[in-house]
What does this fold into?
Amino acid sequence: VAGGKEVREVAKAMKRLGIKPTVILSSPYVRAMETAEIVRQGLGLKKEYLLETDFLRPGSEHSDLVRELRAYSSEEK
It folds into this structure.
């Protein structure tokens, strides 16, 4: 992945800050999934934390993505 080094550094910084997402959503595009995988690994999260969503494809309604994100955040509670 081009820029993979930078993504790894960002993931390390996130981990140092104690950021632990309940889910990492990615568009199904190969490069996006590769980048999301680098973040997942950098945060030390299990594979099930990384999910594809069609709501990150061009032309998708942002309200659908917001609804999906809210569903994941309410699962945490």
About this structure: The first strand starts at residue 24 and ends at 26.
